[in-house]
Design brief:
The chain is built from eleven helices and 18 strands. The chain is of the alpha/beta class. Bound molecules: guanosine-5'-diphosphate. This is Ribosome biogenesis GTPase YqeH.
């Protein structure tokens, strides 16, 4: 086949694999303007589709942002801040100004204090070495906060391009699609001639005659639990609606299982409440620490599920980390799965699939 390039994003066209970059059906090859599926969907349905790639490919690709000038909009998943905050961001984006957008706010309890949460996000970013211009909280699915954010992007971008960056699954595409729909008259201006295709895989959506909004591919973070479980299980653990805190009064010597994917052992401390923030569909099971290993061995994949019997073989073994909590309300975070909030002094052993590192943080809520 003669080499054909997409007139949208510049990628090499292929007709074999619909899930890979550059796919277009054979029947579209004789058209005057050949577009890959991703650009075709954007042009005709005003819809961005997510593509993802490996870390090294990604870094190579996005390092071109360093040389460009523009506003960086870093979208993160508020339910998985540790897993979605890109710690190497300043290396990728150079001196360009960054704003942080916490998406999926609809999942957090309505009582969440927004100001505190924004302050907490600023601290998290600072600790990761990311200097922020501003922080916003939105829900792309519900449309909350989008209008205000658009106004601020317009203000901060100073007539320059806007780069949207994020790990996979944070809702980057949903966000961009909302932006597109939100801008009146925007639908009509998307034509192929607006896609200069300067950087492979970057999709450009014109903002005005001189500048564009640029969607970059989602970076894959291997610490995300999503990479160790089946699609079916991922659906189950991904919250779809506001998380209801589940509160357990626990004595030392007791264990909580979160499906068969994670576990906390309350080793030492006074009787107290453990407040659990996980998808409402993820079953939590209480037992004694001394019985927990045996229960897990005999019942993971059935009583302790997800995973189910089929997806069990994919799950790495659970590994332990010990945390001594004292002084302030602390969250024990299982990236991508949820967290347990503890208010009093305690020694806790947390178990998570190998590769998915548990961490603690000052309480989010
Ligand atoms: P991308 O990989 O970053 O482009 O993410 P997508 O836009 O494909 O979204 C990933 C998943 O998160 C999908 O299941 C979306 O429905 C969901 N999602 C995106 N935005 C939100 C949001 O604001 N709230 C909730 N609850 N889910 C969202």
């Amino acid at each position: 086949m003669e080499k054909i390039y997409c007139q949208g994003c510049g990628v090499l066209i292929q007709t074999d694999d619909p899930d890979k970059l550059g796919y277009t059906p054979k029947s579209s090859l004789d058209k005057e303007t050949v577009l890959c599926k991703r650009c075709f969907r954007l042009k005709h349905y005003n819809e961005i589709q997510d593509v993802s790639m490996k870390d090294d490919e990604y870094l190579k690709m996005v390092s071109s942002i360093q040389k460009a000038k523009g506003l960086i909009v870093h979208v993160i998943d508020i339910f998985d801040v540790n897993g979605s905050l890109i710690k190497s961001l300043p290396r990728i984006t150079g001196d360009n100004p960054i704003i942080l957008v916490g998406n999926k706010m609809d999942l957090l309890p309505k009582s969440t204090n927004h100001r505190r949460l924004m302050q907490w996000l600023r601290t998290q970013a600072k600790e990761a070495g990311i200097k922020l211009l501003d922080v916003f909280l939105i829900s792309s699915v519900k449309g909350h906060g989008i209008e205000e954010l658009m106004g601020e992007i317009e203000h901060y971008r100073n007539n320059q391009d806007v780069y949207i960056v994020g790990t996979t699954n944070v809702g980057k595409s949903t966000f961009i699609n909302k932006l597109i729909k939100h801008t009146t008259g925007f639908n009509d201006v998307i034509t192929t001639s607006y896609f200069p295709g300067t950087t492979l895989g970057f999709i450009e959506i014109p903002l005005d005659d001189d500048s564009s909004l640029i969607d970059t591919p989602g970076i894959v973070n291997k610490q995300q639990i999503a990479h160790y479980i089946s699609k079916e299980d991922l659906k189950l653990i991904t919250p779809k609606s506001e998380i209801k805190a589940r509160i357990y009064q626990l004595n030392s010597g007791q264990t909580l299982f979160f499906g068969g994917l994670a576990r906390v052992d309350f080793i030492k401390g006074d009787r107290q409440s453990l407040v659990c923030y996980f998808s409402n569909e993820l079953p939590i099971h209480r037992t004694k620490v001394e019985k927990a290993d045996e229960l897990y061995e005999n019942h993971v994949g059935e009583l302790l599920s997800p995973p189910n019997e089929k997806s069990l073989s994919r799950l790495p073994k659970l590994t332990e980390s010990t945390f001594r909590i004292s002084g302030e309300k602390t969250d024990i975070v299982f990236p991508g799965l949820g967290w347990v909030s503890i208010s009093q002094d305690a020694t806790i052993v947390a178990h998570s699939p190998k590769g998915v590192a548990v961490s603690i943080r000052k309480s989010l809520l």
